[in-house]
Amino acid sequence: MTALTTGVQVGAGLRTDSGVRIGYAPARPTDGRLVVGEAARLRSGTVLYLGSRFGDRFETGHHVVVREECDVGDDVCIWSGTVIDYGCRIGNGVKIHANCYVAQFTEIGPDAFLAPGVTIANDLYPGSEESRNVMSGPVIGAGARLGVNVTVLPFVHIGAGALVGAGAVVARDLPEGCVAFGNPATVRGSVAGLVPVESRVRPVNGSASRYRFTEGRP
Ligand SMILES: CC(C)(COP(=O)(O)OP(=O)(O)OC[C@H]1O[C@@H](n2cnc3c(N)ncnc32)[C@H](O)[C@@H]1OP(=O)(O)O)[C@@H](O)C(=O)NCCC(=O)NCCS
User: Fold this and answer.
1) What's the 165 CA to ligand 1 centre distance in angstroms?
2) Is the keyword Cell membrane assigned to this protein (predicted)?
């Protein structure tokens, strides 16, 4: 570890573009330290606040913000335009795609995947002081996968390995290994019971969209 600036420790092999800010001072009080592990790759527009810790091989796209008091594991990728608010815990191997918002006090288990546009809420009754006092994001279990534009409400637990379909609004807990979608998201099946994708599609030529559903979709 070497000291980059006051309070900022970085591991060997850091690669940054210009326009990266490592150690932005938050308005909220923190311990004033920021630790970034080995071999980080940070792209232009990334802002990492003082008071967080990142493991090894942390990687960002462009214009990624991670606020203070976050604990981020090894091999985490966060893609362009995503904001991680303060006080979150993100496990090893988590991938968070573009344009996501992860609210304060969210826990994301190892190897979970958030598709583009996932939005996480933490304040059940916005504008209420009582609600603010118990503000809490969800727990997203290890290896869970959330489809594009999924919204997750406060206090919810999504079980390990669950697959949440595109556009779902998760208002209540979901069990391990389920397939769930809809608003509100309900269990529709299991990951183990999914029809193999290769039996559902056929290739097409001459289009960037390389496959279509087969007729009489299984
Ligand atoms: C939910 C999902 C996994 C499919 O699960 P499945 O059990 O195979 O469901 P099926 O495709 O057999 O669809 C069953 C029914 O649910 C509907 N459905 C499928 N996905 C849905 C969704 N996300 N929201 C609402 N309805 C959906 C289908 O239209 C179908 O309705 P029908 O019976 O009236 O025709 C898939 O549709 C999905 O949303 N995947 C996530 C894609 C994504 O966001 N990827 C992120 C990386 S880019």
Assistant:
1) 6
2) no
